[in-house]
Amino acid sequence: MGHNPIVDAGGAAALRNRIQPRAPAGPRRICRCIKDSPPYLHDGRLLTLADTVEFFNLILETHLTADEKTELEAFLRVL
Question: How far is CA 75 from the centre of its chain?
Fold first, then answer.
C-alpha cells in the first residue's frame, strides 16, 4: 500500500475535518425562505434575488449565462 498523507497525518478525524470542515463558532446564516426576506445584503442594497444573483455574478466574475442566473434564482426561491 502507498503512503496516504491525509490519513497518516491524523487518522480518520483529520480526514473527516478535511472533507467536512467544522462551521465557525457564532451565529449561522440560514437560507431557508430567502425569497420572503428582501432586501438582501447586510445593508439592504439589493432589492430582489435577481439583483443579488447579478451582483455576485459581477463581483465573483462567475460569467453565468442568462439561463444559469435564472436557474440559480429559481433554486434560491425553493430553499
Answer: 12
